[in-house]
Amino acid sequence: MATPTDSVPDRDPAGQSLGSPGSARHARFSQALAVRAHLPLSWPAFFARHGDVLPVQAAAIPVILGGGDVLVCAPTAGGKTEAVAAPLLERALTQKWAPLAIAMVSPTRALVNDLYRRLQGPLAALGATLGRRTSDHRERVADKPPLLLLTTPESIDSLLVRHPQALVGLRALVLDEIHCLHGGPRGDQLAVLVARLRKLTAEHAPHGTPALQVVALSATLADPVAVAQRYLHDGQVLRVPGQRAIHATLGRFGAAETFAPLLADSAVAQNARKVLVFVNRRQDVEAIAVALRGRLPFGENVFAHHGSLRKAERERTEQAFLDAGRAVCVATTTLELGIDIGDIDLIALADPPADVQSFLQRIGRGNRRRRDGCRVLLGWRSEGLLELQRFLLQSAQRGELHGDLVPFRPSILVQQALSLLYQNPQRFVTVRALRARLPGWLAAAHADADLQALLDQAAATGWLHAVFGQARYGVTDASERLFERGELHGNLASEPAGVEVVDDATGAVLGQVGGGTLVQPGDKLTFGGRTHKVAQAGAGRVRVQLGAKGQALPIFAPRGRPVVAGAQARAFADYLGLAPTEAPVLPLSGGACLFHFRGSLVGEVLAAFASHTLGAGQVRAGGYSLVYTGCDAVWRPPTLGELQAILAHQAARLWSVLQPGPFANAVPAALVERWLAEALDLPALVKDLATLTACDAGARAQVLAGLVGR
Questions:
Q1: What is the pTM of this model?
Q2: Residue 1: which H helix or E strand, with range?
Q3: Nearest 5 degrees, angle CA 686-CA 689-CA 692?
Q4: Measured between alpha carbons, how far is 568 from 356 in angstroms, rounded to an integer?
Q5: pLDDT tens track for 42-69
Q6: CA dihedral sign, ordered 340, 344, 350, 351
Q7: Is 352 in contact with 388 (CB distance < 8 Å)?
Q8: Which of 160, 288, 389, 547 is the most buried (most CB within 10 A)?
């Protein structure tokens, strides 16, 4: 029960006046007292230092204490971790939950490590044990379970397979940063893992024990209700408003050499001591970092952070950037999530990110301690990208995320069938066992015949072995190798093997560059934000020495292009003033570009249609446009039959756009086509494309020219 206003003291614990009853400060302190009454054990560990609670904590703590499933949506840096950890630990301690009672699943190992650092102190103060289990920290939780375990989806999968008995007493499951998983293959996997954990805990719970509580946390979601339906059971959505103000300036980004002084001048003008720069490509990380090195106000405190750097190098960078008094770090998506790198004074987006969610995630890393909003520098290389930055900014300010709901990928069912097979001590899986461990909404979408066909195809591709006719499926040499290497539990395709970059002085591996990199001794190689001289170059390995001047950019392994959602592409067209029926055509040297604004998946469909049905020359698909080379833009609306034929003949290429994962070849073609038809909503797409008419780019030509190929 909330504390009455007349029982609130006149001053806070620090002796500061709370103002008159009814004032915002007085109301907030009253709210804190009410929350404190609910948390007699955990309040001192989590909140006594400030004697206050943030809005998300005041709203979420009573709900979580109630024991039901809930999705908490609140702005970045709003205190969501404490909002869920404090009430769950309060319940665990007062009700004497036995370890392992609480599991918190985060999208990345780095986030697990960050949460571990943040929660160590409060849990130690409570006398509660904290553990983590990832591919980097293989704690033996089966032998010595902690009260609260921090982990990733892949490690939860591994625990279910190798030590399911360690999870039978689980009482609460926290899905942290769910927006980073939802809509992707790891989010699909997590949805099944939640269902498997519910079944496992229900089968072993003493009579009268409440069902597993699932709490999901998110900063940005396009459709919170759909997310709650996918991961929760009769869960409620708790939205906490409070999007911070965004103070943005725009600057032209022509090349690294021109962006570096712009960034440095902005940092000086805004007295920004710590600056975080986001770019979309790893080579741009290297180029900008080298161009910034030695430049005021950062001097030599210039850091680079991307996925081709070895984990130890990234962690060293994170710690050095955290410790530095004045510094700049240039990164790709690897620093989008909430790793603790200190308070950032200025965020720079050298290029527009893929979507509004990523835009919010990136700018949310800055000014976490400021009440007046975050400061952002938005770079642009062309008029088109300038408008895209402005569109993303406007959408972020309005809270419009423009996301598509991607149907569940059937390839994840193959991975989960393999996971169930190895969870079974008898080493076999059946259609019945697979169905029994799917969420209700997913089981309803797949008949037994679908699951049977899927397991048959997995057997045909070598992942399973049919036993006793087709009733049971067992292990194969291929699946056994995956299990032994621990690769059974992931649903992301691995990057191609590259060339190791080794520090010649220490022998430490710094990371890797693309497998096609050809360098000779004496050549320059920029890596990790510094330019090195190549000392030795051999098969699969390059030894480098620090100290070279200038830069020579490394070649990184090719990566898939960011996926543009159809909803975002159409919203951007509307922002540009284009009617839904307009498809502007821009003449190019040697070809043309047609702007469809229908998203990446539809773009691939239209490219295949133009190439194989209309007889066009080479066509390159993008989320906003199609680039035709060797011919003029060719356009007429496709019929339903033509689109169905495209899906039948181009299924593998088309669904690769939406990351089907490493088990894609084990899905029957008919199931892939059905999935694509659902993802595209073919009848609606046919009607939509029938209204699309090619037209002259007109006054928008300059803006559209900057979007060619996107």
A1: 0.89
A2: none
A3: 160
A4: 8
A5: 999 998 877 788 888 999 999 999 999 9
A6: positive
A7: yes
A8: 288
